[in-house]
Amino acid sequence: MDSSIPWPSSFRQHHHTEKHQQLPTSSLSMSNDTVIGSSPSNMFYFTQISDLHISKYRFRGHTLHFLHFVQSVLPMIKPRFVVVTGDLTDAKDVRRVTSQQYQEEWQVYRQTIEQGAPAMPWYDMRGNHDCFDLPSWQSHVNFYRTHGKSADLVATGQGIYSWQVKESFGNYQFVAIDACPKRGPSRPFNFFGYLTSKTMDRLASALKPAFNHTFVFSHYPTTTMVFGVSSEGLGFRDLAKQYSVYFCGHLHRLAAGLGDVLKWYDPKGESLELELGDMMVHGMYRIVAVDHDLISFVDVELPRKQLAPHPVIPLTPAGNIIWPAAIKPAPIVLITNPKDARFAIPTKEPLHRIQSSSHIRFLVFTSSGDDHDDGDLGDGGGNNNVTVHISIDGVPHPHAATQASDTLWTAPWDPTTLDPRRTHKIQIQVTTSDGQTGSSSIVFRLDNQRVNIKGGPGEFIISSNMAIVLQGFTLFGIAAMLTALIVPKFYDRSRFMQLVQRIHQHPESTSAWHVWVARLLAMPHEQRWCWFATVLFLLALLTLPWFRAEFIPSGTLPHERYGTFYLWGLRFAHEWVPIADTWMFAAGQVWLDVAVFFLIFCWRAAEDACLGVGSPKQATKRPVHEQAWFRGIVVIYWLWRVSELVALGSFYGGIKTLLVYNLLVFWLIFVGYMLCWGKGGIFLAPRQLPVMCPICGRENTNMLLKAGGGPSASETAVAAVTAAIEFSEESSGSTSSTPFNGSPRTKNRKRAFKMTGFIALTNSSMSQVSASTHTSHSEPIEGSNEVSRAEGNPPQSLALDEQAVADEQDQLTLRALVSTKEAGVIIGKGGKNVGDLRDSTGVKAGVSKVVPGVHDRVLTVTGSLDNVAKAYAFITRTLIDNPLGPATPPTTPGTAASHDDITTTTTTTSTTTTTTLRLLISHNLMGTVIGRQGAKIKHIQDTSGVRMTASKVLLPQSTERVVEIKGTVDAIQTAIREIGQCLLEDKERAYGTILYNPTKATNTATSLQDQQQASRRVSTSSILRTGNGSDFAAAIATNGFGNRSSLSSLSGGSSTGVPRRSSLSALNNANLRTQHISIPSDMVGCIIGKGGNKIAEIRRLSGSRISIAKMPHDESGERMFTIQGTAESNERALYLLYGQLENEKERRLRGVLPPPTDGQQDALVLEVEDVGQPTPAAL
């Protein structure tokens, strides 16, 4: 091809106007009654191309497509002018990783225009690729300033320039916008454009309503723009009312067909926005025609299959373009009348002219006339051999088309024959003499109405504001996670436990919503480090700089090269660059780096077994997040996120520059550590199966029910959680707590108990759980045990009211010992008495199951203080009204025969009726009930008129003691209210209580055979219990903690009398269990003993392997004890450990409290033994 292409001499020169130039207002030359006929007048057309991406490294597309467009397409179309909407060059390296401006690419662009279309009016503007790695407009690497065709206009107009087309039939304005960042970072943070407020003022000045139509061109669609507000308060949508069409590029038709129709109608601005596909890959260009002020367009692709490979840099040493072989595109058809109703602008186009038009009009562009030397086709040129077929609504048009000019064809028609209320379709097909075919079809209406574009996702994308969407998406993610983290912090643990109870009670109606709410409630308590780290990181993302990097490597000075990344934009020295790329990057980080790991942490916060997750077949399987395949996915995902951060370093200054001062690096390091060594960490020893509920110590109750565990198993778990909730509610409002060693602690203990794994024995709530979930199950108070057996039903686990557990902070649980016969009286025939009790007091009550050979059962009453007092008065009255026959009263467990006066008795005379109750009080709370120097117990007796006696010894395998109350019904009610008030006021001192559970015990085991038989009598249930000591009563002496001289006494015999258990054989047992408990660091020494003799003795007596952490596991200062063995041996070990702790605590108390005076009563002596913690004065 010659170095220059001849162009028609009739091309008129266009008038360039700066932004401030005022143009005279011109009225339409065509009157409203102008008829669209066959005349070629009243029409002009132009061409738009976009996203050339001229590259020095790409063989296909890119430069080759641009050369073919200039060489083969432009001579065929002969437009009035060409507009290039940005991305003139590619500016990427050979690997498409980094970016910089290459002068060779700009030389190819400039020389192609000058040699291929020297006479063609050409307007261009920059795209984001044209300002990659660009410090400023004056930079030496700003090659657009020296090679761009419209660079001077852009510089003069400071980003806004315009030109006009003036014809006899009207005046038309064209405005170009350069929206590139003033400082152009390297990729990838250079996707969005923006217009400052000053640029908006210049744009508002350029958009004057003095033209038939105004057309705006920019590289960026409005969805990828950030707009300021003009000094008059006008936004871009307000200015859109001043133009008819907004032409743009940039999105390259997206991917997977999402951007095939990136076009939409703006109802607010009453204008069109038309994105054009790229020249780089798709070889697309657009022809726009204005015919009688009706705007029509067609998007066309190059025949890419005809294109042969070509040199990447098609320049000779002399600077001449090496043109590829010419191609012959297929005919192009553009229908101008009727107008396509999908792109109609009713308020800015004279659509009524379609109804009164006399001819169908369309443009036909073919390559058959290229042989004419003058480049202009005559009326009898090569187009005489063109065949045209027209059909409307599938019916062939009766009139033949004729050629009105080089490109314009017309055909007569009568639009009045068509229904104006319908949408019609016209199709025109053109065939050249060489067999090439081109066609076009549109839909139109005759009632001036629009038709929906139906662009699918592409229309939605281009009509949205991507910057606003990304901001909302990012801020929503941060706000949602902060809400999910902070709101549960305002609720104590009782809310979590209430939800767990609901899940246990109603597993069939449990949804994923309940499960995840429970996990979120558990997060602040069970994943404290993760909770604090996530909250702080999210707040840092909002307020602090994320990282500092070398965003513009081509800058000569440090402040030009280095910038700081904020969520809200980039900052270079003292200049703020408000690009929306920061929001796009932040959205990915917030959802992929924070939200995903936040959900994993929440998942680990609560056990699946406790939340009823899984099926019966999964009862003995690990939760999903503990399975190897899931952990592998988590590791791969974490590595992927790390690799993305490393890749970011390769874009901006290397790993050293980017990764040193980077919040994301610290976050991912923390996440990696918690994934490996946090709760449920990858490198932690796997837990023993089946996985237990950490709240109730049971397996998934839903699983047990489905697997045939029966109602006993289910109600046992429900009762356990209920008891835990009740205690949690009582203790949630406390402002101080007492550690296990009894020393004062001012720290507010919001959690009702501390757990690690599934063991939680360090407070009274878990002791209540262990008592209610023990093998000595409770039965429903609605009927006696005999009734349950008569009906053939298994004994129920605990008698509970059907109503949900109340959440009042003054809930009191008070237990008492009753005989088996008294329990029957309390229940009543058919549960009548307990029904009356429930109706009249509103409490929840339960009686433990009958144990053969044991005469005592435990009565538990839960409710408000007044209701509990009324309930015990009701029970006392019931016992008086139903006196039992003469019988030898049972002996209180753990006491000698001389303590028969503690047994409940009823004495009836002619003047008064009294009875005796045996309350169970934690030894830690005995000091509270007795008071200083016996003042409290004396006050209770004087106020109520009862007689109170406290037992001197602990009940077997527990830390509870018996307080006997004898008096009338009213006196007992008053005393119960006073005692309950004491317990509520000092409820934190119940921390560490082991509840008493009646069971048949063997006090001595004189031979190895007896001990083995006793061991076999220990429960071998597969359900792991929390171990309150009563399960192994057959193997351990029942003398309680009254004699604490040695571990041998705790274990029920001499050190030589207990068979030594082989740790190796125990560890090879298939029923091995692993348990974890936390013990204060200052108490560890008393457990280890001198030279390790005490811990060795505990290991020998229990048969479990016990290991002790060298350092505290959290800020509480407590050290982790890991116990591994069978369920029996682990419970024995726990009992021995806590017994040793009690010995040490009492030893310390005896060393700090003053000795009793000679005149004190027995109760006062008990005060010194039973006080749970010394007062500051005593210390």
Automatic annotation (TrEMBL):
<feature type="transmembrane region" description="Helical">
    <location>
        <begin position="583"/>
        <end position="607"/>
    </location>
</feature>
<dbReference type="Pfam" id="PF00149">
    <property type="entry name" value="Metallophos"/>
</dbReference>
<dbReference type="Pfam" id="PF24384">
    <property type="entry name" value="Ig_TMM62"/>
</dbReference>
<feature type="region of interest" description="Disordered">
    <location>
        <begin position="769"/>
        <end position="795"/>
    </location>
</feature>
<feature type="domain" description="K Homology">
    <location>
        <begin position="810"/>
        <end position="880"/>
    </location>
</feature>
<dbReference type="Pfam" id="PF24394">
    <property type="entry name" value="TMEM62_C"/>
</dbReference>
<dbReference type="InterPro" id="IPR004843">
    <property type="entry name" value="Calcineurin-like_PHP"/>
</dbReference>
<keyword id="KW-0694">RNA-binding</keyword>
<feature type="domain" description="K Homology">
    <location>
        <begin position="1071"/>
        <end position="1142"/>
    </location>
</feature>
<dbReference type="InterPro" id="IPR004087">
    <property type="entry name" value="KH_dom"/>
</dbReference>
<feature type="transmembrane region" description="Helical">
    <location>
        <begin position="529"/>
        <end position="547"/>
    </location>
</feature>
<feature type="compositionally biased region" description="Polar residues">
    <location>
        <begin position="22"/>
        <end position="32"/>
    </location>
</feature>
<dbReference type="Pfam" id="PF00013">
    <property type="entry name" value="KH_1"/>
</dbReference>
<dbReference type="InterPro" id="IPR029052">
    <property type="entry name" value="Metallo-depent_PP-like"/>
</dbReference>
<dbReference type="GO" id="GO:0003723">
    <property type="term" value="F:RNA binding"/>
</dbReference>
<feature type="transmembrane region" description="Helical">
    <location>
        <begin position="658"/>
        <end position="677"/>
    </location>
</feature>
<feature type="compositionally biased region" description="Low complexity">
    <location>
        <begin position="893"/>
        <end position="909"/>
    </location>
</feature>
<dbReference type="InterPro" id="IPR056229">
    <property type="entry name" value="Ig_TMM62"/>
</dbReference>
<keyword id="KW-0812">Transmembrane</keyword>
<dbReference type="InterPro" id="IPR056230">
    <property type="entry name" value="TMEM62_C"/>
</dbReference>
<dbReference type="InterPro" id="IPR036612">
    <property type="entry name" value="KH_dom_type_1_sf"/>
</dbReference>
<feature type="region of interest" description="Disordered">
    <location>
        <begin position="885"/>
        <end position="909"/>
    </location>
</feature>
<feature type="transmembrane region" description="Helical">
    <location>
        <begin position="466"/>
        <end position="487"/>
    </location>
</feature>
<keyword id="KW-0472">Membrane</keyword>
<protein>
    <submittedName>
        <fullName>Kh domain rna-binding protein</fullName>
    </submittedName>
</protein>
<dbReference type="InterPro" id="IPR004088">
    <property type="entry name" value="KH_dom_type_1"/>
</dbReference>
<feature type="compositionally biased region" description="Polar residues">
    <location>
        <begin position="1"/>
        <end position="11"/>
    </location>
</feature>
<feature type="domain" description="K Homology">
    <location>
        <begin position="913"/>
        <end position="984"/>
    </location>
</feature>
<dbReference type="GO" id="GO:0016787">
    <property type="term" value="F:hydrolase activity"/>
</dbReference>
<feature type="region of interest" description="Disordered">
    <location>
        <begin position="1"/>
        <end position="32"/>
    </location>
</feature>
<keyword id="KW-1133">Transmembrane helix</keyword>
<dbReference type="InterPro" id="IPR049786">
    <property type="entry name" value="Rnc1_KH-I_3"/>
</dbReference>
